[in-house]
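Section 3.1: Structural characterization of target chains.
Under the original work plan, the team committed to producing a structural model for every single-chain target entering the pipeline before any wet-lab resources were allocated. The record below documents one such target. The sequence was received from the expression subgroup and is listed exactly as submitted; it comprises 996 residues.
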Amino acid sequence: MGDVVTSRDRSLDIAVTGIAARLPGPRGLDDWWDSQLQGSVHSRRYTREQLLAAGVPAALAAAPDYVPVRGHLDDWDRFDHDFFQIRGREAELMDPQHRWMLEVAWNALEDAGVPPRDGTEVTSVYASMTGSGYLRAMVRGGDLDAGLLDDVIHGTEPDFMASRVAYRLGLTGPAFAVQTACSSSLVAVHLAVQALLGGDCDQALVVGAGFGYPQAGHLHQPGGVLSATGACRPFDRHADGVIAGSGAGAVVLRRLSDVTGDDPEPYGVILGSAINNDGHTKAGYYAPSSAGQERVIGAALSAADVDGGSIGYLEAHGTGTRIGDPIEWTAASTALRGAGARPGSVAVGALKAVIGHLDAAAGVASLIRALLVVRSGVIPPLVGFTERNPLLETEDSPLYIPTEAVPWTGERPRRAGVSAFGIGGTNAHVVIEQAPPREPLGSGAGASREQAVPSPVPGAPAPRERLVLLSAADPEALGRVADGLAAHLRTHDPDLGEVCGTLVNGRPALGERLAVTGRTSAEVAERLVGRTGVSRGTVPVTGPAPVVFLFPGGGTQRPAMAEPFIALPGFRRALDRCLAAFAAPSADRIRQALFDPDFPADELNRPALAQPALFAVGHAAAAALMELGVRPAAVCGHSSGEITAATVAGVFRLEDAAAFIAERGRAMQDCPEGAMLAVGADVKQALGLAEEWGLDLDVAAVNGPDSCVLGGLAEEVDAYLRRVGDTCFVRRLRYSHAGHSRLIEPALPALTGAMARIELRPPNLPIALNVSGRVVVPGTRLPRDMFVTQVRQSVLFGAALDSLAEHVPGALAVEIGPGRPLSPAAEAAGFPAVALDRARDAPGTTALAGVGALWTLGQPIARDALTGGGRRTRLPGYPFSGPRSVAPEALAPPPDSPAPAPRPEQPGEDPEPEIPAPVDPAEGVTRIWAELLGRDDFPADADFFAEGGDSLLITRLIRRVNSEFDVRVPVREMLARRTLNGHIAVVHRIRDETDR
């Protein structure tokens, strides 16, 4: 059939922009959906040993009517509590449903391209859960500390789950618990839609969870709704009931009119919804009502303003009961037929046949599956179906049962209905539609999976390099994030620009970080898999380290040395401003040298061009880096790089600096030619060898304890090279003159004259000087002749770095210029060093790699400036794992487990009363800390509040201490002496005083 033309008013449509789920079956949503199309069933039949290990009483597990089957959720007890800044002990006491909802809520917001804790959208929360069997198990255990009841109640009861999600994810809209039994989460969807239409929020998060503790089977009771065979077969002749399942799901909703072209394509659109209750006109409280179900479906179709003939799929409530199924079938058939549906036009699906009944989460899970149906255009089979329940009314029914995966052949746009009916009679129905078509993209990203990725055009320019930024809360998770993205890039080949934009604009920046560059998704995937060309780092808990800018001087230049920096936003503008400060012929030649890889190297190696070119590229790159958010705490330059550093520090105006560096280069070039030699040895050793061999060389620079530069006549430098052999590392610099040697003395008069025309201003940043090796502070007036005499004197760069390390402790050195000649000296002085230009080590790499390295170390990079806007695409969500977390109280032995037998008394032996040994304060206080805070590895100087304690926990701590040691410790003293050692000392003192 062709597309249906409709005049519907779309102003009330609600887009589903994000989904996430933890359901029985494969963990990834794509793989899970594939399993639906294959007709897989994701239930587990437990062995007796598994049941006993889970805590099922032995007598119950052995009962003839016990059915050991469930829709099983793997790793149900794992929780990444550190990610959500929840103490380990508090996490143990939380019902797994609360835990799962935090994780799927986070993933759903990520999937929607909205960073959790972003705060730009007013997001409401609607949360539903099954009654807490976990709470009952803890209470049944009998060992629950009364002081923990607040944590237990807040972590297990439905009242607190929505507000917990809002608090931990930083969501500021209304937060509601919605509890209507099996229909809870679909009722929550309806309420969320109404809130969006009423303007209560900009975005709504609906999250539901279902779990029975322990995760096991059920006791079948004749006439009950639980299956005797352990298989849920909705609408089947052999249907005998439902099995339970475990899982959680979440959807993110927004008004369709608010969804822009830059947002990920919605999974689908909610056209209308309705809720009602059966009332008392039914067989009993637990009985379903055909009339009530029919009314709610009809009301939803009316709200959606569509006819039943446009519906092609129904995700049924589908409990697989012999009487309930015919009632639902009749209600849906009547409602759809009355709204215009033709016989046999609506395929029926029932998720409970696959994963069991998720109770409060059943509605949102069914909605997610229906969204995948209308999105993909493929209808999954009703698994386990053999033949119809004979009680189904089939004459003229619009419903039919698909027994294999079939393509959608009905009307377009694809529309479906979703039903959920709660025990007690609260019914919900939602009508959805496939997302409206969007403008096609130039590449395969962001579009639906049905669209093909265009092949590259032969002869087209290579795609530009992109910066991919990943983060996680811990190193292991970061590895999983990288592996997950690599697999996604290989499988889907999305547009790399959209991937970068999504990671920046749709994901929060966490503490463990990885950066990698690449030009295609395949290239980035390869680097992520091999961990080649990546930077990894950790954001300091104390905040970003101060940054020291380092600028190299002559000898580091190379043709096209500006190319790696073009990728930096703002670099071209800054370079144009800088070149405009030079005379026109000189500026043109500098520009050619900076961008032409075939520029004559011999010309660039001469001071008249090398020094202005290095100044231009260094100053422009520094300006671009500062525009991105990295501000230096101090600066230092090597030789001519000191002019760049002084300009960045405000000593020179840009025009004056350009004039002086140009004159500096010309004046030095007019001097006799020479050469310079980098020597990997102590300056005394290096100079001693020259004297031993009768060579008259000067010390041009002292870069560190084992690094210096000698300069002089070229023939003497060459003789040194020949004689030194393997004695130490030596390398001749690419420079035509011997800077900082006696050969440069003829340049000084011209430089003195040039400096006389320049007004030096006090620096606004600390600057480490070449001539003294010391740091001058902001506001210091520098001697006018300093930048003249600097040309002749040795560069005391190593001493300058040592002074910087004292002046700016804990700083990070950033080398700004071609290559990384200064980074080894900085690292030897104790600085972590990042070089912006890595093209020598990785050809084709731009300065984005260096910026990425800075971001991994916590520097405040304006990430959106690097990636721009653009459409966000679907990427793998955060790979939560975490430790296994089960409260010991919930693991108490079942009631029919035998208690340990007492030791028999020996004949004639009078039992002596046991006198408990006094508890050592160190052991006792340490144990109480561990129990309250959920860890047992605290150092002696650990701060109670820094480790996650609060005013409530300190009260519990004091109560426990008073009880166990039979003392009364002062609250004020425990607050003042808040370390572990401090608390132990307080208890020692109070107990000693009590004993005396």
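Residues 591 and 741 are 29 Å apart (CA to CA).
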